[in-house]
């Protein structure tokens, strides 16, 4: 029986489902279920209670969840994923969310390890600070490409770029900045500056400038390579 330009089968009920049985494998079953405007794909191991996370859902918002009934992103996987190539088009740095020992710090600010609050960061305040930890990500619309954290254990409030390209607040009053210059912390809170004393910079290098700043304060694109 064929249907053109219309629906062939209607299933109406509370969470209607359609089941399939494979006679070649002991009548293993899987099911499609409509629920709340979304669609659930249920495996035999899930239906028999042997695999409580062995299912996939597409919710009404278009989010796909594998092993989770409430996906919070376009793809939300409760488990390990495997792929040959991963191309990220939405961001340019590798970041980790940290707790900041202050009110919210502006994007692009340089932050350092807070010795008085283990695990937290704070706004940089001094030149050549060996506690330099990274840059608050998101300045000039450049967002993190990867954000790393362990939910419920290593949560944080602000993404801090630990590697990759990010815009950083900088002060050229201590020396004009040009591409290729090493950057470190400065006396201007939250701002980077050009390294002019390489002995003091050991352990306090934020990264390499990829754009310039001839005078005053502004933002500089930096390749974060802490060293």
Would you give an account of this structure?
The chain is an all-beta fold. It has 2 domains: 17-77, no CATH class; 93-225, Virus Head Decoration Protein, Chain: A. Helices cover 2% and strands 38% of the residues. It has 1 helix and 16 strands. The protein has one helix at residues 44-47, and strands at residues 17-22, 28-35, 38-42, 55-58, 64-66, 75-77, 93-98, 110-113, 121-123, 132-136, 144-147, 158-171, 182-185, 192-194, 205-209, 217-225. Strands 7, 8, 9, 10, 11, 12, 13, 14, 15 and 16 form a 10-stranded mixed sheet that branches. The longest helix is centred in the N-terminal third of the chain and has 4 residues, at 44-47. The protein is elongated and about 75 Å long. The model has no long low-confidence stretch (mean pLDDT 91).
Blueprint of the fold:
Elements (H helix, E strand, L loop, with lengths): L16 E6 L5 E8 L2 E5 L1 H4 L7 E4 L5 E3 L8 E3 L15 E6 L11 E4 L7 E3 L8 E5 L7 E4 L10 E14 L10 E4 L6 E3 L10 E5 L7 E9 L2
Parallel strand pairs: 5-6, 7-11
Antiparallel strand pairs: 1-2, 2-3, 3-4, 4-5, 7-12, 8-9, 8-10, 10-12, 12-16, 13-14, 13-15, 15-16
- Helix- and strand-based class? mainly beta
Shape: elongated
The CATH H-level superfamily of the largest domain is Head decoration protein D
Text of the CATH class of the largest domain: Mainly Beta
**Number of beta strands:** 16
Q: Roughly what percent helix?
A: under 10%
Radius of gyration: 26 Å
CATH architecture of the largest domain: Beta Barrel
Q: In this structure, how is the largest beta sheet organized? A: 10 strands, mixed
Count of spatially separate domains: 2
Distance between the termini: 70 Å
Overall pLDDT: 91
Number of helices: 1
CATH topology of the largest domain: Virus Head Decoration Protein, Chain: A
Strand content: 35-45%
